[in-house]
Amino acid sequence: MSITMKHGAIAATVIFSLAACAEGEAPDNSVAAADAPEAAAHDPNAISYDDKPSPAEILENSAASDWRALDPENLLYIDLERGRVVVALATRLAPAHVAQIKALAREEFYDGLSFYRVIDGFVAQGGDALETREIKTAAKTMKAEFDQPLTADIAFDAIDDADGYAAKVGFVDSLPAGIDAAGEAIWHLHCTGAFAFGRNNEPDSASTEFYITLQPQRYLDRNLSVFGRVVEGMEYLQALRRVSPPQSADDDMGETILSMRIAADLPEAERTALEILDSSTETFAAYYESRRNRPEAFFHFRHDYMDVCQFGVPVRAVTISGAAEE
Questions:
Q1: pLDDT in tens, 49-101
Q2: Which of 190, 229, 246, 270 has the fewest CB atoms within 10 Å of its CB?
Q3: Cβ neighbours, 10 Å, residue 283
């Protein structure tokens, strides 16, 4: 199949509506006196941060219950010569795509293939560039899972910050997600490290070719099916050699995928045991707020805002017994 997802930019136009001023009257840009107390109450720069913990202190004082072990059955390992990339698979919002990548990994479809399309600031795309591999147990094409109905069994941990692509953003199982204005649909976001399948123009044409975003590509939200996120090894993807899709075997095929495996299929000694900060906890909320308004003495202005894609959800390595590594 040809991959028609192209590297594009989206231009955002912001229109500011200015009230017309009476002739000869200067615009009043000040906060009305009556509104000043309320504005000050919400001004993050009008309060002291001396007694507020830093992000590092919040994590240092977190409880074991604030962290959730990443299930080996839903961890994908992409082993490169540079090192291991670990992807947390999102079973709740894209279960069929998760099942597809598991089937492909278990039939060793990607072993020896490559990241053949790596565009700076866009994506690293991998798979069968020349369509030479046989699909054995996996589906030949996939029904799109661009979004899912937002049902009562999906725990959506919302944040207050506004977003330009979704009516509301937050986290599902600690992975970034958005919902529509009606509160009826939910999807995972194209933040850095989003793991998704490419496709042709037809919505239901995804099959084997995957990509990982090197920077946020939010205009792709609800146009392709995101079903995971890189939780370790992003530096190896950022360092990949930049290449364009090959036209023949004589072209540069990019860097080789040594193997792709589901963690549960490997002996424990070969696994990368990880925990992620649970987005349903008070500690997660406190950590998020400490990133919105940094309490450290270095910061003299706080913006009272955090772009959901700029928030790095903490992930830590643990021993097989469950103790956090130093």
A1: 889 999 999 999 999 999 999 999 999 999 999 999 999 999 999 999 999 99
A2: 270
A3: 18
Instruction: Calculate the CA 152 to chain-centre distance.
Output: 23
Structural tokens at position 101: 């990548």
Cα separation, 280 vs 158, in Å, equals 10
The string of pLDDT tens digits covering residues 144-184 is 999 999 999 999 999 999 999 999 999 999 999 999 999 99
The one-letter amino acid code at 102 reads K
Contact criterion met (CB below 8 Å) for 241 and 118: yes
Nearest Cα to Cα of residue 53 among 277, 276, 287, 284: 287
DSSP 240-309: SPPB---SSTTS---EEEEEEEEGGGS-GGG---EEEE-TTSHHHHHHHHHHHS--STT-S---S---GG
Residues 190-247 have pLDDT tens digits of 999 999 999 999 999 999 999 999 999 999 999 999 999 999 999 999 999 999 999 9
Using pLDDT thresholds of 50, 70 and 90, give the confidence band for residue 322: low
Which candidate, 76, 111, 87, 75, places its Cα nearest to that of 256?
111
Q: Which domains does the chain have, with CATH numbers?
A: 73-267 (2.40.100.10)
What one-letter code names the amino acid at 322?
G
Q: Which of 281, 229, 226, 230 is nearest to 68 (CA)?
A: 281
Q: What is the DSSP string of 160-184?
A: SS--SSSSEEEEETTEEEEE-TTS-
| Average pLDDT estimate for 23-28 | 42
